[in-house]
Amino acid sequence: MTDPGGGIPDDLPDLPPSDEPTPMAEPFHVIVTDFLTEADVERPILGDIARIHLAGAVSEDDLAGPLPTADALIVYHDVPMLTEASLSRLKHCKGIVRAGVGYNNIDVDEAQRRGIPVCNVPDYGAEEVADHAIMMLLAVIRRLLPSHEAIRKGGWDVPVVYGVPRLRGRTLGLVGCGRIGSATALRAKAFGLDVVFYDPHVAPGFEKALGVRRASTPEALFEQSDYVSVHCYLDEASHHLVNADRLARMRSGGVLINTARGPIVDQEALIEALDSGHLAGAGLDVVEREPLDDDRLRSHPRVVLTPHVAFYSVEGFLEMRRKSAEEVRRLLLGQPPRCPVNEAARRLCPA
Ligand SMILES: NC(=O)C1=CN([C@@H]2O[C@H](COP(=O)(O)OP(=O)(O)OC[C@H]3O[C@@H](n4cnc5c(N)ncnc54)[C@H](O)[C@@H]3O)[C@@H](O)[C@H]2O)C=CC1
Ligand SMILES: O=C(O)C(=O)COP(=O)(O)O
Questions:
Q1: Region Disordered: start and end of each range (predicted)?
Q2: Residue 296 a catalytic site member
Q3: Per the structure, how many domains does the chain have?
Q4: Exactly one of 29, 187, 261, 321 is catalytic; which is it?
Q5: Is residue 79 part of a domain?
C-alpha cells in the first residue's frame, strides 16, 4: 500500500557526520517486511550503508526466502505475527524495528532468547490517536452517522437526535493512561468530561498532575464510567480485559471506544452489550480480527468503524518512517538504540 500523503519531507537529517564508521564495502541488508511500496524516506537515511529490500509480505510464509539475508528488519503490521519460525531464519540480524507503537505482532521474548534487539517508535502519533478517540466518542454520542445517512436519503430527520445526552459532567474512563491515554484525558477535560483512569503502572501522583482521578481496579473504573476508551497495550494481562462482566458494570447507555488493539475487547461480549441496549454505541478503530470479518459489527446501527487508521497523519507517518530508519541505522552501526523494548536492545545502551 502506498502512503497517500507521503513524499519526501523537507527536513530529512543531514548525512552522517564523518567520524561515524566507514561504510562497509559489503552493504548491510535491511528488509522492510510489509506495507511499504517505496523507500523514499528510508533510502536517504540508510542508503550509504545498506541496501533496502521491500519484501511486501502479507503472510509469514512470504518472508521465508528473504529473512536469512537480513542484517535488520523494519516491521509494519501487515504480517500477522513475526513468530519463532521467522525469527529462526534470521542468521545475522542486528535488530528489529517495529515501525509503530504496539509490538504485539513480534514475538519479543523469542527475539530476546536469540539475542536479537527489538525497538519500536513510541512517539509519532499519540495526538492523532487521541483526536480519533474523541472524534469517535462524539460521533457515537451525537449520532453523526444516522443524521448524515438520513440527509443523504433525502430526509431532514430531527428526531434522530432525540435522547442524545449532554456530554459535560459525564465520566470518561480510560483503560491505560500512557502517552495516548493522557492526550485523550486532556482533550476530554476540555469537553467538560470528568476523567478517571485505571493503569497499574503509572506512578502515584500522576493523576494530580493531569487533573484526573484514578481507579484502583478495572471494576471500579467501569462502575464509575459512562464512557470507556481503551488505551493500554495488548499483552496477556490485557487480553479481553474488556469483558462481559466489566461492560455490565458500566452505567446504562454507555459507549465503548477502542483505538488500542482489538483483542483487548471481547468482541462477542461487546456485541451482546450493544444488542441488549445496555451500551448505546461503540467506536472501533481496531477489532479482534483485521480486516473486520464480522457483519454484526459492520452493519450495526450504533457502531462507528474505522480501519486501524487512528495513528495516521501525513506528518506523523513520515516521522515514524524517519525514526524507524534512524533506529535501524544506529543498530547497524552498533550505536545505542533510542527505544529498546527488550533486554537485548537495552544492553546496547550505555549504563
Ligand atoms: N489505532 C492506532 O492507530 C494506534 C494504536 N496504538 C495502540 O495504543 C497503545 C497505547 O499506546 P501509547 O499510549 O503510546 O502507549 P504507552 O506505553 O505510552 O501507554 C500504555 C499504557 O497502558 C498501561 N497498561 C498496560 N497494561 C495495562 C492494563 N492491563 N490495564 C491498564 N493499563 C495498562 C501502561 O501502564 C501504559 O501506561 C499501543 O500499545 C498500541 O497498541 C498506538 C498507536 C496507534
Ligand atoms: O503504532 C501502532 O501501534 C499502530 O497501531 C499503528 O498502526 P499499525 O499497528 O502500524 O497498523
A1: 1-24
A2: no
A3: 2
A4: 261
A5: yes
